[in-house]
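Figure 6 in text form: structure in, sequence out.
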């Protein structure tokens, strides 16, 4: 089955690789409709916040809290509904 991306689609690309004992995992999201621009910006900011917050003595719940706070600081309107 072939699926072609359409204008209103949001597509998450997630892949991982294992090579000679090294693991690499990467993911990103694309969308063509500008209504999703703020959503993509919010998720990027939340991810970067999580990375900045992480450290040797940081509890996972503190990282999750920082990510949630960053994500909830955005107001996103999709199809006329505010999230």
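Output sequence:
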């Amino acid at each position: 089955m072939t699926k072609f991306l359409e204008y209103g689609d949001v597509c998450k690309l997630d892949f991982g690789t294992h090579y000679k004992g090294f693991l690499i995992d990467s993911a990103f999201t694309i969308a063509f409709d500008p209504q999703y621009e703020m959503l993509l910006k919010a998720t990027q900011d939340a991810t970067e916040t999580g990375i900045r917050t992480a450290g040797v003595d940081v509890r996972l719940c503190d990282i999750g809290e920082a990510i949630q706070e960053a994500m909830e600081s955005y107001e996103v309107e999709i199809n006329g509904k505010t999230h």
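Caption detail: The two ends are 33 Å apart (CA to CA).
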